[in-house]
Design a protein that fits this description.
Number of domains: 1
CATH topology: Protein Transport Mog1p, Chain A
Number of strands: 7
Shape: globular
Strand content: 15-25%
Largest sheet: 7 strands, antiparallel
Structural class: alpha+beta
Length: 209
């Protein structure tokens, strides 16, 4: 029998991409402090981050981030309890508003962060993540397959996918990334498909907003 350790889903981004976008899921209800970054310090255009051809409008969901993922998608992943919202503030929600869900008794969690806080500080989008990677702030960055036509990347302090923690970001606009963090799974083979499914559902929701 496999024993699952409790997942700790970062409420605003864990040690990794808090201010930049929210980091991998490892702690429930906690988040790293937001990095101090002047609003004028926009990521370099030469960061190598892919561009977003059709930007998505997230404004409808910044006040109700839990609604950005359809209930049918969450239930298909066995998240049946209501999500816990975290609205943007200067603490846990520094990266932007988000929502987290968990499967009771299993230590499995899912979190979404809409990185409007990073955008407003000039450190948003995949460009901000690529720039943070280049500076050594986030040592692990690996381009991911596009999610329904939107560029994506795995970003974290280290690659924890083999341990069942998948930290996926996709570009909703050139200056806005949305993070999806799946934690407490068996490994990369189930955590990343779950994160990708949620990311695709978010895109579908935003296209219809």
């Amino acid at each position: 029998m496999t024993v699952r350790l409790p997942v700790r889903v970062a409420a605003g981004v864990t040690a990794g991409v808090l201010l930049l976008a929210g980091c991998s899921p490892e702690r429930t209800g906690t988040a790293s402090p937001a990095p101090s970054s002047p609003a004028s310090s926009a990521p370099s255009a030469g960061s190598g981050a892919p561009k977003v051809a059709a930007p998505l409008d997230v404004s409808k969901y910044t006040a109700k981030p839990c609604d950005v993922v359809p209930g049918s998608v969450l239930s298909s992943l066995r998240f049946t309890d209501p999500g816990t919202p975290q609205l943007q503030d200067n603490g846990f929600g520094a990266a932007g508003p988000g929502c987290s869900w968990k499967i009771s008794g299993e230590g499995v969690g899912m979190q979404v962060i809409i990185g409007t806080g990073n955008r407003d500080r000039g450190t948003g989008g995949l460009a901000g993540l690529y720039a943070a990677h280049e500076s050594g702030q986030f040592p692990f960055l690996e381009p991911a397959a596009d999610v329904d036509g939107y560029p994506a990347a795995y970003v974290d302090k280290r690659d924890r996918r083999p341990n069942g923690n998948c930290s996926l970001y996709f570009g909703a606009a050139d200056d806005l990334a949305i993070g999806v963090f799946a934690g407490g799974y068996e490994g990369q083979q189930d955590s990343c498909p779950a994160a990708q499914q949620v990311a695709a559902a978010i895109i579908t929701t935003l296209k219809g907003a």
